[in-house]
Design brief:
The protein has about 250 residues and is α/β, with parallel strands linked by helices. Helices cover about 40% and strands about 25% of the residues. The strands form two sheets. A six-stranded mixed β-sheet has the order 6-7-8-3-9-10, with helices on both faces. It has a four-stranded antiparallel β-sheet with strand order 2-1-4-5, with helices on one face. A hairpin with a 2-residue loop joins strand 4 and strand 5 (about 65). Helix 3 crosses helix 4. It is globular and about 55 Å long.
Length: about 250
């Protein structure tokens, strides 16, 4: 489905991604983890054409995207992306936000698109909010609308960039549940997250990135129970420390 080969990206001479290579098979869920600032979100933005790469190649379904002839508005219809900040249009209600992309970009009829939108809103538990405006929704509800808006384009792959990072803890679960259902249904997904329990439950493969490089890659049960590298061990130990601190278990 997706192949990335020796991708390099820098900002003002500082290397952010260095020789990144991996592939994502159809129906596979790949989760990118690593410390903040290691290049995970930049990698997703490169895949979706929001950042130009310095060298390397990205291919979707065998088609190379990293060339001057790539028509990104068409390609992005196949690459759904959900951002941390929702990015819903505040002057449009939920239904209008979802209908805009397929009607404008794909020229689909309103009747067909509304039926799809209602099905997706039912799926994410928000059909009763279809006439509501973003200001009337909670953070978790906004993020579920953003997921429905991406899915209505019928993408081949979904990219999720820290979609729960801006949510209150009690709202995180409702968003992650939707993503888990997508994983169970066979949606191809590339996910950036700091939710380690979710990563363990949803991923077919974990890719650990640090300082712009892939340090370790493998099945979640291997990564979380028996990491191979010292860097991955320190990363996971830090998360264990933070969890103990939140729960007040012997951490001052």
């Amino acid at each position: 489905m997706l192949e990335i080969q020796t991708l390099r990206k820098s900002f003002d001479g500082q290397i952010v991604l260095n020789n990144i290579s991996f592939s994502v098979q159809k129906g596979e869920v790949v989760v990118l983890v690593g410390p903040s600032g290691c290049g995970k979100s930049t990698l997703l933005r490169c895949v979706n054409g929001l950042e130009r790469i310095d060298s390397g190649a990205i291919a979707l379904e065998g088609r190379v995207l990293t060339c001057d002839k790539t028509k990104w508005p068409l390609i992005r219809q196949k690459i759904g992306m959900v951002f941390q900040s929702y990015d819903l249009f505040p002057h449009m209600n939920v239904m209008e936000n979802i209908l805009l992309g397929p009607m404008k970009a794909q020229k689909r009829s309103r009747k067909e698109t509304e039926a799809d939108a209602e099905r997706l809103l039912t799926r994410v538990g928000l059909l009763d909010k279809k006439s509501a405006f973003p200001r009337q929704l909670s953070g978790g509800q906004k993020q579920r609308v953003a997921i429905a808006r991406a899915l209505i384009m019928k993408p081949a792959i979904m990219l999720f960039d820290e979609v729960t990072a801006a949510l209150d803890p009690e709202m995180v679960r409702e968003v992650l549940d939707v993503m888990l259902e997508l994983a169970e249904e066979g949606m191809t997904m590339l996910i950036v997250t700091h939710e380690m329990q979710f990563a363990k439950a949803a991923a077919d493969r974990i890719i650990f990135i640090d300082k712009g490089e892939i340090v370790e890659s493998g099945a979640p049960e291997d990564f979380f129970t028996n990491p191979r590298t010292d860097r991955a061990k320190r990363f996971l130990n830090m998360f264990s420390f933070e969890n103990r601190k939140k729960k007040g278990l012997g951490v001052k």
